Give the backbone structure.
Amino acid sequence: MSPTPPPVDTTIDGLRARLDAERSAGRTVALVPTMGSLHEGHLALVDRAAALADVVVVSIFVNPLQFGPTEDFDRYPRDLTADLAALTGHGAAAVFAPTVAEMYPRGPIETRVSAGEVGTMLDGASRPGHFDGMLTVVAKLLLIAAPHVAVFGEKDAQQVFLVQRMVADLDVPTRIEVVPTVRAADGLALSSRNAYLSGSERAAALALPRSLEAARAAADAGDGLPAALEAALAVLDAEPQLELDYIAVVDPASFQPAEPDHVGPARALVAARVGTTRLIDTALLQLR
Ligand code: PAF
């Protein structure tokens, strides 16, 4: 594997020319869409992509469309040099790092993909328009790169559900691959936003994975959904530095709230603010 950083394409035409040449030579393409600030979680996506396709492209683009007016678009960490160093040795053939003007040359975009009702629930309720903005840029990236496969992280479970549904609804010929969440040794799900946390905030943030572990333990004990939710809430309520946004359990097939007597796989989702940082986490439960 090459010890040098991958080449960077900053234009749509440049990336298309590169990938057209690869496809003409019979090679398959995988896309890993990211907003940069790459950590081990992203690198796990890149490694999976490299196992699935001949050519891996990592897009790095902080998409203004998916940030609300009071959100962290301006302060979102951006360091292309560090990202290229992180990618070295991970089998990425190219990085696509366009400017906002390259992606949205006509200014605020008029045509958007609607994430529908599921896009207004949970994270969509707290972040109005977020999922429409996310799906719009993912659609653009899929049209630009035309990958055989695109790789996403399980941590953003609602995003994954919506991308899978968009690809199915719009007959996009790209397979969506999902990679399990990568966690730090203390259990915190890796996220670019963890960089915002102070020492004590990071300790408080551990209530998120612990709440999911409590829910999983209750589910595994056969206690049912209400008890699993109660166990998770008890952990979250005990952490004074944490401002809970939601804890929910959904049916993974529909992303609608699971019924209290739900049996089988169910996805637990939690979102909370620690200081000024909003974090999310998720776990798959098996309810009996
Ligand atoms: O998960 C992310 O980093 C972003 O939502 C994505 C998929 C790159 C779209 O901007």
